[in-house]
Amino acid sequence: MNILLKFPNYPDSFRSFTHVVRFISKETAVPTPGLIPVSAVLPPTYNRITRIGLQVSKHLLLVLVAALLAGCLMNMVTGRNQLSLVNESELQLMAVSQYRTFLTENKVLSSGNRDAAMVDRVGARISNAITRYYDEQGKGAVLEGYNWEFNTVDSKEANAWCMPGGKVVVYTGLLPITQTETGLAIVVGHEIAHAIAKHGSERMSQAMMQQLGGMALQVAVSQKPQETQNLFLQSYAIGSQMGAMLPWSRQQETEADQYGLIFAAMAGYNPQEAIPFWERMSNSGGASPPEFLSTHPSDATRIRKLKQFMPEAMKYYQAR
Questions:
Q1: Where are the beta strands (DSSP E) in 242-317?
Q2: What is the pLDDT of residues 48-99, one digit of tens each?
Q3: What is the Cα 304 distance to its own chain's centre?
Q4: Which of 15, 57, 181, 259 is the most exposed place for a label (fewest CB within 10 A)?
Q5: What's the rounded Cα separation, in Å, for the pair 174 and 163?
């Protein structure tokens, strides 16, 4: 069986860019008949400056187009093109540093703790199943540089995340909602799917284009270390103390749901548990939903899509 399904759509940032191209094209087009162009009522000097500025804009546009096309790579898991201005190996090095910092600043449960032991067990089963599958498919490069780590943090926050390279954290506040080991596997599979599909890298690339002018990650780290660190933490939904987290796009969420189901199923967890879990998650918190849902929308559309993905996921499921 092969789960490398294709999503032949461009990322949101690329679609937004095409709107910019169309806008500039309209601005340079022939004026609508019957309308007096602005240039007709402006001084000749201003008109010359405007023409020069327009020529410069065209050149800058060509440069921007070339940069974006060079930065769009096909993801080996989803098969769709993604904006990628950051090198995966550089992100993994940054992840190691940020992961260590996070663990030192938070209360991490020892492996002897019952909850921590469950997180370790789920993480080991899913990571081993994924690694075995991609090795058998000759796609070992998907997990290149991955050195899996699973830790449980004592916190009331209902959250979980996975950094590049397989650095995973589960918050104890999430466990009353997952309720069972299978429910936890649904979440861990979902978060690992985000990482393997390089959604965080995609979000960080989009943010770097907007906030740091598209500079290379290595340059950004040296010239704007705090801004770059904040973007990294926001891109991977790590802690609300850094301010508003960057939301996952609908396409990213759909991919994480789809592949997360399959990853959990590969590890011997029943993917059908995803539907009651997401229903519990959406109902928890009342008027103030969990932080987890601030970047993971949960609604009828999600449930409907999960049901659509279920037959494919069940092909990989063998109860243990």
A1: none
A2: 544 545 454 444 444 444 444 445 677 778 788 877 777 788 889 888 998 9
A3: 21
A4: 15
A5: 18
Global pTM? 0.69
How far apart (Å, rounded) are the C-alpha atoms in residues 210 and 157? 30
Q: Are strands 72-74 and 81-83 parallel, antiparallel or unpaired?
A: antiparallel
Distances in whole angstroms, Cα of residue 211 to Cα of each of 15, 109, 238, 247: 18, 36, 19, 16
Q: Quick count: other Cβ atoms within 10 Å of Cβ 160?
A: 25
For the chain, domain boundaries: 12-70, 86-314
Active centre residues (catalytic): 191
Q: Quick: pLDDT tens for 181-199.
A: 999 999 999 999 999 998 8
In the DSSP assignment, the letter for residue 168 is E
Half-sphere exposure of 17 (CA within 13 A, CB side): 20
Q: Are 302 and 278 in contact (CB under 8 A)?
A: yes
